[in-house]
Amino acid sequence: MISLVINPGSTSTKVAVFENDQELFGQNISHPTEELAKLSTIDQQYQFRKDAILHILKEQQQDLQKLDLIMSRGGLLKPLSSGVYQVNTQMIDDLKNSPRQHASNLAAMIALDIAEELGINAYIADPVVVDELQPLARYSGNPLFPRRSIFHALNQKAISRQYANDIERHYEDLNLIVVHMGGGISVGAHEKGQVVDVNQALDGEGPFSPERSGTLPVGDVIRTAFSGKYSEQEMLQMVVGKGGMVAYLGTNDAYQVELNAQAGDAKAMEFYEAMAYQVAKEIGSMSTVLKGKVDAILLTGGLAKSRMLTKLIEERVAFLSEVKCYPGEDEMKALAFNGMLLSQGELEIKKYQ
């Protein structure tokens, strides 16, 4: 089974070709900030990113006629259950009209376009809007603002299953706290195969990250919003895109910040310690959701490659349970793996409606 996997991110687009779950070709296409700045909306980036994907596939002599299916990252759709969904017109309409803009919204659009040209099907798996929250987790403090499930579902689920396989257990039998650390940071409480609570990592909950502010003092945010100094768009950018590390240090390059910290930059070091501190606090919070019954704490995502950061977190949470690191993002392989199971008839195709 040959699949094409497409995964757009905020500043890059990952594309790969897999045979079953083994990668044959992979490329992370970086998009210069100055190029993206010319495309003010995600919708305007559609053709730009599609052309970039097709160009790299042609350049690397990848034969699209050999593809059996296309797997793409899920976008900001309506809340849905975990699983694999065939891309259809309803899904595309919802992505185009989504009140939240994110590069992941482009994945299914590009996948369907290419798939239709080839006469094959396109699918998504475990999009960021997978919703398994327990009723108590939906309370925010005001009925106008219910808590919502938006997180790195694909990677969190994939890493959870990988850990379960490593210890020869079933994911559905474990209680896990999984921390995805990338441009955004999500911390999920996995209870017997269900993510019963998780911070809304997209725009306003949990630890700050390289590009996001996380939870802010809401009164101060309201007063700032009505101060007349900032537009709505500027306020939103404070939360997503220009928050966190960007706001404090002027960069989203965590690797460079770590190098600066190791070289004696006190400001960079304190920031790294503060980010680890906030992640650890969120882990502690999720441990109460699981009533202290935590089989393992799993750290994953790009920032989990940093031994400095993971050690700072582990020092604060190791008393709760063992801490295991799965550095990097397994999203591409997870998508391909879902495609393989689908082709083997081991997964049911769900209909998006």
UniProtKB/TrEMBL annotation:
<dbReference type="Pfam" id="PF00871">
    <property type="entry name" value="Acetate_kinase"/>
</dbReference>
<keyword id="KW-0808">Transferase</keyword>
<dbReference type="InterPro" id="IPR043129">
    <property type="entry name" value="ATPase_NBD"/>
</dbReference>
<dbReference type="InterPro" id="IPR011245">
    <property type="entry name" value="Butyrate_kin"/>
</dbReference>
<keyword id="KW-0418">Kinase</keyword>
<dbReference type="InterPro" id="IPR000890">
    <property type="entry name" value="Aliphatic_acid_kin_short-chain"/>
</dbReference>
<keyword id="KW-0067">ATP-binding</keyword>
<dbReference type="GO" id="GO:0016301">
    <property type="term" value="F:kinase activity"/>
</dbReference>
<protein>
    <recommendedName>
        <fullName>Probable butyrate kinase</fullName>
        <ecNumber>2.7.2.7</ecNumber>
    </recommendedName>
</protein>
<keyword id="KW-0547">Nucleotide-binding</keyword>
<dbReference type="InterPro" id="IPR023865">
    <property type="entry name" value="Aliphatic_acid_kinase_CS"/>
</dbReference>
<comment type="similarity">
    <text>Belongs to the acetokinase family.</text>
</comment>
<keyword id="KW-0963">Cytoplasm</keyword>
